[in-house]
Amino acid sequence: MIGVGIIGAGFIGRNHFNQYEKLTDRCKLVALCDKEEPRRLGDWSGVGGNVGDTQGTRRDLGDIRPYADWKELIADPKVDLVDICVPTYLHKEMAIAALKAGKHVLSEKPMALNLQECDEMLAAAASAKGRFMIAQCIRFWPECVWLKQAIDDRRYGELKALHLRRQASTPGYSLNNWILDPALSGGAILDLHVHDVDFALFLLGKPEAICAQACQRTAGAYDRVHALWHYRPDLVVQLEGYWDMPPAFGFNMGFTARFEKGAVVFDICTGQPLTVYTPDGGKETPEMQPNDGYYNEIDYFLGCIERNEAPRTSTPAESRDAVGIALIEKQSAQTGQVIKVR
Ligand SMILES: NC(=O)c1ccc[n+]([C@@H]2O[C@H](COP(=O)([O-])OP(=O)(O)OC[C@H]3O[C@@H](n4cnc5c(N)ncnc54)[C@H](O)[C@@H]3O)[C@@H](O)[C@H]2O)c1
């Protein structure tokens, strides 16, 4: 039985909490830390979000130990796995401390704010006895897993065009709006769009070059990016991510993939299932795995711990690459240049 301690009981901490509660045959939630007293005591009524469980409630946490100080949670001998769900600027310090304490660590995306911080985390993980993974939930999202398989097994022939999109209203749910401060979150490119950067890396590996444009609204923060990733002349790959839409828009994530023999469309905001359009004029809606990416990533990481195996579906080095490539997009947008990646 894996003892779990979560640091950060905001939007994503609450989502992770709900997943561990579905996995009580393999893990036990033993500790919860948040610097805000109501949150660490289970009052999540003021915690919102944009996907998954978007509205918090009050919860009875039973014998789960509440901590105000994250260092005390890490030192708790009942905690085997530390799940880091705090704002991004805190990931590095907490992950390194937990790894040094011999704990397994699941830390939210983006891995960190820059490559130097990622490298420090990788160095700590290299000599740690615990397992380490960044919570890149899109690699575990059923429709995204399905697309990866369709590209790999070429069931519709060669991929010709791919458009990944993540579109949102300006987020208003993070505590004290930390997410809108680029010094704390990295802005929309790192916080939101990094999901699709990591997804494109998962699907296709690193591109040869990237060309991006971005818009800056709030001081210093890009809140919209559109990027073209160059692989080969007969494949068009476009990624877009933004959180500058008006409040009523809400949230969408989706993709369009055009293959030689058909096309696939998925947009979560439509409520429609992933749809395959076939060359004969037909439409198919393949069956998806029942659970979402949050459940699947935690289920997978618990399995890695149980089997004493390093994660392979999402490695910390790949999560570092996602940060690096998101920053290359930013550099391309700032300079107006096409940037060579490999
Ligand atoms: N995978 C996803 O889909 C997804 C979705 C949302 C957020 N995230 C990531 O999760 C992280 C958290 O984002 P969020 O939306 O949950 O933010 P949030 O503001 O909703 O919650 C963060 C929580 O951390 C707590 N906290 C802050 N500093 C702390 C400290 N020093 N000690 C203890 N607790 C502290 C806050 O009180 C707050 O409750 C970010 O890195 C974000 O990018 C990932």
Notes on the protein architecture:
The chain is an alpha/beta fold and 342 residues long. The chain has two domains: 2-135, NAD(P)-binding Rossmann-like Domain (Rossmann fold, 3-Layer(aba) Sandwich); 139-294 and 323-340, Dihydrodipicolinate Reductase, domain 2. The protein is 32% helix and 26% strand. The chain has helices spanning 11-20, 37-40, 70-75, 91-100, 115-126, 142-153, 182-185, 187-191, 194-204, 293-307, 316-335, and strands at 2-7, 27-33, 65-67, 81-84, 104-108, 132-135, 159-169, 209-216, 222-230, 236-245, 251-259, 262-267, 275-277, 283-284, 339-340. Strands 14-13-12-11-7-10-9-8-15 form a nine-stranded mixed sheet. It has a six-stranded parallel sheet with strand order 3-2-1-4-5-6, sandwiched between helices. Strand 2 (27-33), helix 2 (37-40) and strand 3 form a beta-alpha-beta unit. The longest helix has 20 residues, at 316-335. The mean pLDDT is 95. It binds nicotinamide-adenine-dinucleotide. Residues 7-13, 33-36, 39, 70, 85-88, 90, 108-109, 135, 137, 174-175, 178, 191 line the site of nicotinamide-adenine-dinucleotide.
